[in-house]
Backbone:
């Protein structure tokens, strides 16, 4: 699959060889992502970062990726400073930003905003998170982290904990893990279970999914624990959020029964889901995961804009 000039709206837009190619390119780009060498693949290219929702890692790692490859960024980090405030439609805003740049990276609270942008724009559009729908570049980062830790992306047992209903990172991740034939054990508060629509989408893939109520049982033979934040901003009703807030927390005691090789991932930001006491243990991989967002996004931008993987 040639990625040059294509959109990345959902993780399904990538087939398995394309994902493997991006991950391989990302591995080779780690020294450049660390600042050890300079690449010029995106020289003369201008990439728009249109972020209509808060972001730290995703926006900064995209900006770092583009600039480490010699490109430049046009950034909207504060939607209140745009003409959307004057009542301009999202379609008009997106059409215009896309005409100013060579590619558009979009984060928006509406599920479907990235699809809208891709339909309007004749430049590549990359979804940096649309509502509770998908977050495909987070998934590429997650896969790179799992591959680095476990050596292989195939046949792993992965516990996914937390807000599986509204978590867009999880909705993309589950598809990719299923594509690579992994076993997923889902643990969540009953009201935040994985939507049936997501489960149906991955049904034809090789991976297996089961639910487990007891975290300790789920963790006993797991390779990876993927923890997520409860997505407070997606709840239609704050009292519903309060009912589940703080309902799970990973600390050293939780990890005592797990394999020493268990690695803990989290797309971040974390609230109380992982106690800081876990950070210095060999289990903690979430800060490495956040760093790997840079080489992964470099590899992706290179494939889409630079004409090569
Ligand atoms: C995630 C997101 O925005 O969906 N964060 C991120 O991009 N690293 C997860 C979250 O906000 O909980």
Residues:
């Amino acid at each position: 699959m040639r990625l040059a000039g294509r959109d990345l709206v959902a993780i399904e837009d990538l087939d398995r060889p394309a994902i493997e190619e991006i991950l391989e390119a990302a591995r080779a780009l780690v020294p450049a992502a660390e600042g050890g060498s300079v690449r010029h693949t995106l020289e003369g290219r201008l990439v728009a970062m249109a972020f209509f929702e808060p972001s730290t890692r995703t926006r900064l790692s995209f900006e770092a990726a583009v600039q480490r490859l010699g490109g430049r960024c046009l950034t909207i980090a504060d939607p209140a400073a745009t003409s959307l405030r004057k009542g301009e439609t999202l379609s008009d805003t997106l059409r215009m930003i896309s005409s100013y740049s060579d590619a558009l990276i979009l984060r928006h609270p509406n599920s479907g905003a990235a699809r809208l942008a891709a339909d309007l724009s004749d430049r590549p559009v990359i979804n940096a998170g649309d509502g509770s729908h998908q977050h495909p570049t987070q998934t590429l980062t997650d896969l790179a982290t799992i591959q680095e830790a476990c050596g292989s992306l195939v046949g792993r047992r992965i516990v996914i904990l937390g807000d599986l209903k509204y978590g867009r990172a999880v909705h993309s991740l589950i598809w990719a893990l299923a594509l690579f034939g992994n076993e997923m054990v889902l643990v969540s508060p009953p009201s935040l279970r994985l939507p049936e629509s997501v489960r149906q989408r991955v049904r034809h893939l090789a991976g297996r999914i089961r639910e487990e109520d007891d975290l300790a049982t789920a963790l006993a033979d797991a390779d990876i624990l993927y923890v997520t934040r409860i997505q407070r901003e997606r709840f239609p009703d704050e009292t519903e959020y309060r009912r589940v807030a703080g309902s799970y927390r990973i600390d050293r005691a939780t990890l005592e029964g797990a394999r020493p090789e268990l690695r803990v991932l989290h797309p971040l930001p974390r609230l109380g889901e992982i106690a800081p006491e876990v950070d210095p243990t060999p289990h903690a991989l979430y800060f490495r995961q956040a760093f790997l967002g840079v080489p992964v996004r470099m590899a992706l931008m290179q494939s889409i804009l630079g004409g090569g993987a």
About this structure: Residues 11-133+293-304 form a domain with the Rossmann fold fold (CATH 3.40.50.1370). The pocket of N-carbamoyl-L-aspartate is lined by residues 57-58, 129, 135, 138, 168-169, 229, 267-268 (CB under 6 Å). The longest strand covers residues 46-51. Strands lie at 46-51, 72-76, 103-108, 125-130, 157-161, 183-187, 208-211, 224-227, 263-265.
